[in-house]
Amino acid sequence: MIPYTLFCSSDLIFVPINMKEPPFPFSTPAFMASLQGPCDPPFQERFSSLFSPATTIQLSLKNDEQCELPLIDLWRLECGDEEGRKACIAEIGKASSEWGFFQVVNHGINTQLLQAIKEEQRRLFHSPFEKKVKSKVFNESYRWGNPTATSLDQFSWSEAFHVPLSKLGEDDGCFEEEFKTLRVVMQKVAEAMTELARILAGVLAENLGCPATCFLENCSESTCFLRLNRYPPCPFFPAAFGLMPHTDSDFLTILHQDQVGGLQLMKDSKWVSVKPNPDALIVNIGDLFQAWSNDVYKSVEHKVMANGKVERYSMAYFLCPSYESIIGSCKEPSRYKKFTFEEFRRQVQEDVKRTGYKVGLARFLI
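The chain above was modelled as a monomer; its predicted structure follows.
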């Protein structure tokens, strides 16, 4: 097994994956010529050792199966029809158990607001690379590529701003004038996403007959994140990751993506491509919710494949607790011993140092 490294939910997450396809050589003249043009970020220049003529990569190059995630209309939660509300809650619970992913419509977040954040992040990412690196915007939250990669199959062809919500409320001069509107739009998006995340977390708890207060009270703007993602056109398409296989180390994630596609998830022991839906937001379960639900809900491995012609944008909201928060199962007998979020992160780091990959929740099984 080969370790993969990813920044996600403020953690370094390492997830192993089995390689089954034959090596794909990057040594043709056409391929080498494609590396000569300018690229922002400068992946080839800064990670030149990964892009040699002898480079080979083993990835699953064929993935013809496309899926439509379970689609759930959240209007039924507030429609006044108790039977409709119960059916909606049951559907969310079933999707979280069988898929670990679902999509929602009538989610209450204004479509104009989502379009505004896409336009703002496009303007932000199209700033010159050196400006993005040196900018103080969002307290130096800019990330790109993977500084720990030792081979191309450990590399993510993407860039991101991973922003604590607490930084959005600070007006301490860290925002250049041209990014003032970005901050305002992100504040509005964060407020809307936080409300939706709390509703969904409450529904998931109710589906198990448990109160949600035991974990929601520990999730605030000081612990949650917004992540703005850009995936530039990649000459390694279709054999490169935009984002490496991973699970999320939070309670749940809400994703808004464009129509380019590329998101894949593990379903029934194989990768399937998620068909984009322009009207829906995607929700997925994180490691902490799997532990809290006693494995009723599943934190599922997922990835993004690079695109060879067009750039891709997405925005993710991560519902995270404080580092001191105790994560315990909602019902007994528990499959997991109690642990804090900080202990979970520390164990991940220790496993990575010792074995090269993330073990995750398995370390906390009783």
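The chain has one domain: 5-321.
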